[in-house]
Amino acid sequence: MSRxxxxxxxxxxxxxxxINGSEIRVKGPKGEMQRLFSPLxxxxxEDNQVVVTRSSDEATVRSLHGTTRALxxxxxxxVSTGFAKVLEVQGVGYRVEQTGDxxxxxxxxxxxxxxxxxxxxxxxxxxxxxxxxxxxxxxEVVGQIAANIREVRPPEPYKGKGIRYLNERVRRxxxxxxxx
Length: 180
Known about the structure:
Layout: E1 9-10, E2 16-20, E3 23-27, E4 32-36, E5 41-46, E6 49-54, H1 59-80, E7 83-90, E8 95-99, E9 102-106, E10 113-115, E11 121-126, E12 131-136, H2 139-152, E13 162-165
Antiparallel strand pairs: 1-6, 2-3, 3-4, 5-6, 7-12, 7-13, 8-9, 9-10, 11-12
């Protein structure tokens, strides 16, 4: 049996979980999420916990068991505490500015790059440390927006300039050497 799938998900105070067939709605202080799951796994609420059980031991059903439990856990964690990704901007003259809800990236192009947040996503900019924090209640969307921002100017291996995740290690290369 799946080690992740058999763990119950504890519902914290202030979070409301509703199950309607294979659709699950989670509502909390940070927001509201809904998702459809496969009917091959059943989801039930027992003693303020969400329990996921599978219908058979087929390979496809086993693979859905742990995934379903992890997605429900991410939904409950997201609406109660939220998720965040921190990005760093490194390079001479590279900077990030916040204008209203949007952010503007000045990362070596001839034009600034403006990024607008989708619904449920907020940006926080710390100009002193040149860090950008992407926060929201949907883990998938937070990760995708952070990846899209990093994709504007990924870190290059020679000088290390670019946008990277906090504590990301960039493999450095030596570069050319002068002939003697």
